[in-house]
Amino acid sequence: MIIFGTRGVTSTKETGPFNCPTCGDQRAYSRKSVRRFFTLYFIPLIPLDQLGEYIECITCKQQFTEAVLAHDPIGQAQQLQAAVGASLKRILAIVMMADGKIDDAQIAAACHGYEQVLGMAIDTHEIQSELGSVQNGESELIAEASRLRDQLNETGKHAVMQAAIAVALADGPVEGAERTFLGNLARELAVPLTEVQTLIRSATVA
To answer: Contact at 8 Å (CB) between 107 and 122?
Structure first.
């Protein structure tokens, strides 16, 4: 009796390094291809149609689509940091300009606040350059804060709020446009105003 049929046969097409989402680190992968073969006495003889491909982590054996090869957590983190840094610079510049006067104490507070939020230093010239590019303070502040709302966790939002408050307080009490801008910032970041008032009192006492 002749026994024939078909079955899928998996083969490795290539290997290489990738960032495995399951392992959380760089690992080696193998690209697997599954093809249907005509079999005779259970032996695959004639290749037929290709059934598909997938990426397999050699370490954890988890299987992924090809899109996983573009997974770059380090690059994504750097992009996020750059985006947050750009928005934060603009927000601090806007708060500085709210009362129409800017002094060295505010610039120093902005540099310190930036470092507290992002963990990296910024040159005073970068802050001064940002001041010169602000066109419509209130609407720009709302737009930048809205972007940060989706990029930061609660701790990050509070850190941004603290940095802005420190800048506003650097040249005296928070009044007028400064208070309005801080209120807009808190609303867009979804930080309760009661918490903002607590932060202002804490910063004033310190």
So the answer is: no
Residues of the chain with pLDDT under 50: none
Residue 21: both structure tokens together: 């989402």
C-beta of residue 13 within 8 angstroms of C-beta of residue 39: no
Q: Which strand (E) or helix (H) includes residue 53?
A: strand 43-57
Q: Which pairing describes strands 25-40 and 43-57: parallel, antiparallel, or unpaired?
A: antiparallel
Q: Output the CA torsion 66→68→72→77 (10° steps).
A: 140
Superfamily the domain 73-205 falls into? TerB-like (1.10.3680.10)
pLDDT, tens digit, for every residue of 13-72? 899 999 999 998 899 999 999 988 878 777 777 778 788 899 999 999 999 999 999 888
Give the C-alpha separation, 77 to 85, whole Å.
12
| Domain ranges within the chain, ordered by starting residue | 4-70, 73-205
Burial class (CB in 10 A: 0-12, 13-18, 19+), 142: middle
| pTM of the predicted protein model | 0.70
Distance CA 96, CA 172 (A): 12
- 59 within 8 A of 20, measured Cβ to Cβ: yes
